[in-house]
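Let's inspect a concrete specimen:
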Amino acid sequence: MTSRKQTAPPLPTRFSGPAESPGFLLWRVSNAWQRRQRAALQPLGLTHSQFVILACATWFGEKEPLTQARIGELTGVDPMTTSQVVRSLESLKYLTRHQHPDDPRAKLIAVTSAGRALAQKAVVVVEETDAAFFRPVGNDAGGLVKLLQTLAGDG
């Protein structure tokens, strides 16, 4: 009879495996969702970051004057990425930047008519992609949204 030597687990974790780790699962789900969104937005010539910033500027630009910093706050995108994406959307003629009347360091961001038209098309694509991705959740989608809002600090 051979004796089995007990070995320590390969990682000092409280989980029996990755499938029990909420962080690892969130990472996997997030990556799968992002892949689908990238594929859906590619025919429109948008990255997902560009879509998020363009959609945010379209939505909130109707309600308040938007600066690059405010767009970053609303989207949760870091300042450097926000700056790069705003510049790329400006070069594509989807956004314009104008001097802020009260703050010489800030620029006001506005969506062009081409940007608005693209945002309107893209939001339909993104929502259809979301619906297909989250279909397996079924009637639990509302609960999932509440959990995500809580984790995002909105709940």
Notes: The chain has a mean pLDDT of 91. Helices lie at 22-41, 48-61, 68-75, 79-91, 113-134, 141-151. Residues 6 and 106 are 63 Å apart (CA to CA). DSSP finds six helices and three strands in the chain.
